[in-house]
Amino acid sequence: MIQQTIGSAETPGTSRSGRFPKINPVFFVLAALLVAITLSNPNFVEPPGYMNFLKRAAPLAILAAGQIYVIVSGGFDLSVGSLITLTVVGSSMLLNNNADATWWVIPVMYAVGLAVGVINGLVVSFLRVPSLIATLGMMITLNGAAFMWSSGSPRGYLPETFRFFGRVNIQGIPLIQFLPVALLVLLSVGICLFWLMHRTNLGRMLHAIGDNPRAAQMSGVPLERVRITAFVVSSLSAVTAGILLGGFAGVSTDVGVGYELQAITACVIGGAQLLGGRGSVPASIAGALTLTAIFTLLNFIGLPKPVRDVVQGVILIVAVVLATYRRNRAGGT
Amino acid sequence: MKRLLTAALSAALIASTAQAQQLNFDDPAEFARQRELLTAKANGPDGEPWAQHYGDQMADTAKFKKEGPYTICFSNAGVNNAWRVTGWTNMQAEVKLHPEIKELIHVDAEGSDDKQISDIDDLINGGKCSALIVSPNTTAALTPAVEKACAKLPVIVFDRGVNTKCPVTFIHPVGGYGFGIQAGEFVAANAPAGANVLMLRIVPGVDVLETRASAAKHIFKEKGLNVIGEEFTEGDNAKTKSIVEDYLQRGTIDAVWMDAGATAVAALEAFEDSGLPLPVITGEDQQDFLMKWKAEGFKAIAPTYPTYQWRTPIIAAVNVLKGEPVPGPEWVMPQPAITAETLDQYVNDKMPPLHHAMCGCEKLPDYPAAWGGQ
């Protein structure tokens, strides 16, 4: 049962030899958007163009790569946006303009993320609160905590040592001129999460739980433990995204607002099934890049803001409709 | 019945849009008046702009006279940005200067119209308030609530306005046009002819911000500057930096005009990270911007919407309750801009980066600790 689920979720179509292996359409959408961006702004093919794009997309991509763990297991994590805010605000409060404190502040923030993930997981697994509600509660709590901590205005600031990850470009690289540290972070987190989801037993169990929790449990999957792990992965990715965002632009008290929905949207554009059982890390990262590409393209075209919002909304709906259509067809055959 | 309901609903909708259209953010008369006020001489004690006012019109408050001690109630739109945090700290410190105030009851609407409307209701019904201070979240939505409060007790409005003349006085600095004029004229004078100007704004629909933008656009048009874009940043550094980076890829930006300078440093970083010279920029009196300005020496101006105005409602409330006249129906106070010449007076590396320098708080109790300074 489990093996079969995995086979169909991971590489649909490979069992039918002779056909083309199905490539996730999100990669085509992304390619088309990148071409469109290049046409509207030829500078995009220069390193500063695409490197800035990747640097800016990195936090959302990391967030989506974490969120997909929860989505595949059949839940949502709405608390990531507020965890980003808490990371940025909390770091600035703890650092208090002292550059030497970076080495311990970052682990502390990861510890906070770990705690948030474990609590989310425990509440969902043992108290049987739907993940939507549990993480919504967590979102409100964390927003409140960030606000209480800073009373609306963080007293500290982020020193250059902290901002290294989100802001600095390593100069003097042949061919590409420079390499943003944020991109390196994205690559390492992406590879790590890809391996964990698609090459280990944990990934198989996640898919199994999302597909049919009861069946998974009866075949010996430790439901609670796997779910908690999924929430922990999501929370830790949110802390990472927060460190990058804080590094990119400094302290804002509402830096994380809306990121939870963007991350979920990115996963759906990447073909994840919202009720669980299907989804992949590379496709979610591609979904995040697609989302960022939509924002960038509309910026480059230079439409007025209200028109842009309308177009953006329509594109999102169409992208999700396409993803759903493809999935239904794949499931039907 | 259904049809009737539909008709009523559409009528209500039309009425509400009509109301929205009444808010005029491009008023030449007001533009001219505020331009004059920027250079006018204010009445009141020297060096205490929060106690100063323009004009001679006073509101008679004899009917509100009451024996102390007083309970002052304050319905606050929110403490949701650094400007409001500095202001709120000012107000609490000002209360300590007035022994006749027994208590300041503060209710935070957290940026929600609905919550503020019910907050005001609760405060009136609680019956403890001697006077009510309101800093409205949005203009149109809060008008009826303020009118309701006026029937019960003396009301003082400050910061953003409401569409009614019922409060005893409406306290504010010169205003949005003034801010837009100071910033716009600086850009026009310092950027090359026909320069590309990027306009960065927080959100649409707030009167004091809309008028800043309309005044600046007016000036840019007059001086033949080229506005290459008008973008909303929602006050978010990351969004601001992304927007500026995108515009930099499309072409040159000679000047950045901002309707509020909280994200000015992020805008400047976009130039730095792209390896470009810093533009002519308009910021605000936030310390991080002032420090960067001093360190890098780019061409800039910091118009202010001074946070010292948070002291004035307390002063006004005490005067009203003592039956002493106060400037009214509007109490307009000075609105200075920080320039390269006066920059050094306001830069203070002992204060937190998000502190607003034009706070008039240096002599208040617990300064600088209460403001997070060292």
UniProtKB/TrEMBL annotation, chain A:
Transmembrane segments: 26-45, 57-84, 104-124, 131-152, 172-196, 228-251, 283-303, 309-325
Domain of life: Bacteria
Pfam families xrefs: BPD_transp_2
Localization (cell): Cell membrane
Membrane topology of the entry: Multi-pass membrane protein
Keywords: Cell inner membrane, Cell membrane, Membrane, Transmembrane, Transmembrane helix, Transport
Gene Ontology CC, one term: plasma membrane
GO molecular function (one): transmembrane transporter activity
InterPro entries membership: ABC_transp_permease
Quaternary structure annotation from Swiss-Prot or TrEMBL: The complex is composed of two ATP-binding proteins (LsrA), two transmembrane proteins (LsrC and LsrD) and a solute-binding protein (LsrB).
Task of the protein: Part of the ABC transporter complex LsrABCD involved in autoinducer 2 (AI-2) import. Probably responsible for the translocation of the substrate across the membrane.
Official protein name in the record: Autoinducer 2 import system permease protein LsrD
Automatic annotation (TrEMBL), chain B:
Matching InterPro entries: Peripla_BP_I (IPR028082), SBP_2_dom (IPR025997)
Domain Periplasmic binding protein: 72-324
Keywords: Signal
Localization terms from the record: Cell envelope
One annotated Gene Ontology cellular component of this protein: cell envelope
A matching Pfam family: Peripla_BP_4
Xref: SUPFAM superfamilies: Periplasmic binding protein-like I
CDD domains: PBP1_ABC_sugar_binding-like
Signal peptide span: 1-20
Source organism, top-level taxon: Bacteria
One MF annotation (Gene Ontology) recorded for this entry: carbohydrate binding
Protein biosynthesis in keyword set: no
Family: Belongs to the bacterial solute-binding protein 2 family.
Protein name per UniProt: Substrate-binding domain-containing protein
Provenance organism: Ensifer canadensis
